[in-house]
Amino acid sequence: MGIALNTALVVAEAIYGYLGNSTALLADAGHNLSDVLGLVVAWGASIAARRAPSGRFTYGFRASTILAALANAVFLLVATGAIGWEAILRLREPEPVAGITVMVVAGIGILINGFTALLFASGRKDDINIEGAYLHMAADAAVSLGVVVSAALIIWTGWLWLDPVTSLVICATILWSTTSLLRGSIDMSMAAAPKGTDLAAIRALLLARPGVSAIHDLHVWPISTTETALTCHLVMPTGAGDAFLMETTQLLKTTHRIGHTTLQVETHPDNGCALAPDDVV
């Protein structure tokens, strides 16, 4: 529903932004397009997560969500550059703007973005992706409000330069959010520990488990934009049974949201494990 509503809004803003000669409305259309792409990525992640591993893709296609986020960020940077360039040209030669049309379409944008935000409000506390969608939609409602205010001021003052200036402000907003998306997707592509992962706390949890005298070869990385994996070697002189492994896995899941844990138990601290040194991957 969120994708359908925002797609309709993008089309309407693009058409009326062009007909109304408003770069601010076109910029807002570009911003809302980022929402559509973001929601599509989230939807694709939920679909990919259900696909069973096969052949060479032993994790299935979960990592495709990371690649989609990276492609999304690059696309947004290109689109924002084009919108910004047009706004700069318009600053040099301001043109009349259909203020009423811009206000009406952007006002509809406030309603759609606000309603879409409400769709995600109930689940945002339990899912960081839903929380991100909620905050993005709420912010877009505010951006659309800025376009309405800009159009109203143009009608009132006749200052045509307000339209391209507003579009540049919207571009700056898109760039700010896109930079974070680009950095995050690159980090995930490089198998960096997901943002918010407390490696020190994870290490302390494993060392505090009964029978564990040391750990090494600890790795935490994202399988997808919503799933995290962990591998670690545990030195346990007395060994460990299935109950210990299951309990440790559950602890990692409940305290650190790590859903795919693989633990290797070693009973002799001087067994010569080639992965024991910290500088070895």
Q: How does this model look, in words?
A:
With 281 residues, this protein is mainly alpha-helical. It folds into two domains: 1-190, Up-down Bundle (Alpha-lytic protease prodomain-like); 199-266, Cation efflux protein, cytoplasmic domain (Alpha-Beta Plaits), CATH 3.30.70.1350. The chain is 64% helix and 9% strand. It has eight helices and three strands. The chain has helices at residues 2-19, 23-48, 64-92, 99-121, 128-157, 162-189, 199-208, 242-256, and strands at residues 214-222, 228-235, 260-266. The chain has a three-stranded mixed beta sheet, covered by helices on one side. A hairpin with a 5-residue loop joins strand 1 (214-222) and strand 2. The chain is elongated. It starts with a helix and ends in a 15-residue tail after the last strand.
Counting DSSP E segments of at least 2 residues, the number of strands comes to 3
Q: What structural class is derived from the secondary structure elements?
A: mainly alpha
Helix and strand succession? HHHHHHHEEHE
Question: What's the alpha carbon Rg, rounded to whole Å?
Answer: 25 Å
Main sheet summary: 3 strands, mixed
What's the CATH topology name of the largest domain? Alpha-lytic protease prodomain-like
The outline comes out as elongated
Strand content: 5-15%
Low-confidence spans = none
List the strand order in the largest sheet: 1-2-3
Can you tell me the CATH class of the largest domain?
Answer: Mainly Alpha
Q: What number of domains?
A: 2
What is the count of DSSP helices, taking H or I runs of 4+ residues?
8
Architecture per CATH nomenclature, i.e. the level-2 architecture of the largest domain = Up-down Bundle
Q: Indicate the mean pLDDT.
A: 81
Percent of residues in helices comes to 55-70%
End-to-end separation:
44 Å
InterPro entries: Cation_efflux, Cation_efflux_CTD, Cation_efflux_CTD_sf, Cation_efflux_TM, Cation_efflux_TMD_sf, CDF/SLC30A
Pfam families: Cation_efflux (PF01545), ZT_dimer (PF16916)
Keywords: Ion transport, Membrane, Transmembrane, Transmembrane helix, Transport, Zinc, Zinc transport
Subcellular location: Membrane
